[in-house]
Amino acid sequence: MSGKPRLTYFNGRGRMEPVRWLLAAAGVEFEEFFLETSEQYEKLIKDGVLMFQQVPLVEIDGMKMVQTRAILSYIAGKYNLYGKDLKERALIDMYVEGITDLMQMILMFPFSPPEEKEKNLASIKEKATTRYFPVFEKVLKQHGQDFLVGNKFSWADVQLIEAILAVEEKIPAVLLGFPQLQAFKIRVSNVPTIKKFLQPGSPRKPPPDQHYVETVLKVFKR
Ligand code: IBG
C-alpha cells in the first residue's frame, strides 16, 4: 500500500470535490478510483465497503470513511486546518455548513431539467449575493485579517474559495459588490498548496458536463 488516501467517486466534482480541495490544501497526495459502471458500485456494496451504500468513500489511515462531512472533519483535524480550540472549531463548522448549503444548489444544478435551469441559476445568484457572500465580506472587513478564522488558514477558507470559484464559473461578475472577497480570492489562490491545485494537471475536476451527469445516472440506474 502506498499510504496515500484512496478516493472512490465519479470522475467529476460532486460531493468528492471538497475532499479533493481539502487534501490538496493540506499538501496531501491521493489516489482515485472512478466509478463508471453500476457493477463497480454494486460490488462495493456487496463487499460491505459502503456503510450506507453511498459514495464518497475515502480510505485513509486504515479506515473506510463515508459521509462527506465526517471525512472532511477528519482531514481538517488531522492536518491542523480546524482551529486552535473548540470555539474556533465551532465557527469553522458554522462557516463550512453555510457554504455547503450554497454548494448544494450548485451540485444539483447539472441534474436539473432544462426548463428549470434559468430559475435555478437565478436562485444561486440570489442566495450567493444576498445570504452567503455578505456574511464573509463582513467577517473579513471587521477583523481585517487574511483568513476567516483565527488569523490562520483553515478548512473554512478552503471551502469558501471553492465556492467563490464555482459561483464565478456560472456568474462571472458575482464578486463585483464584494471587494473583501475579491482580495480574499487572490490571497487564498496564492497559498502555495492552493496555487498548485489551481494549475492545469492537478486532481481538481472540471465543471460538470453531460458525460458526468449520464455516468452518475447510469451507475445508480436512475
Ligand atoms: N450524506 C452523504 C454524504 O454527505 O456523503 C450523502 C452521500 C450521497 O448522497 N451519495 C450519493 C450516493 O451514493 C452519490 S453523490 N447515492 C446512492 C444512493 O443510493 O443513495 C450524489 C450527488 C451528486 C451530485 I453526483 C449532487 C448531489 C448528490
From TrEMBL:
Organism domain of life: Eukaryota
Keywords: Transferase
EC category name: transferase
Keyword presence, Metal-binding: no
SUPFAM superfamilies on file: GST C-terminal domain-like, Thioredoxin-like
GO molecular function: glutathione transferase activity
UniProt name for this protein: glutathione transferase
Organism whose genome encodes this protein: Apaloderma vittatum (Bar-tailed trogon)
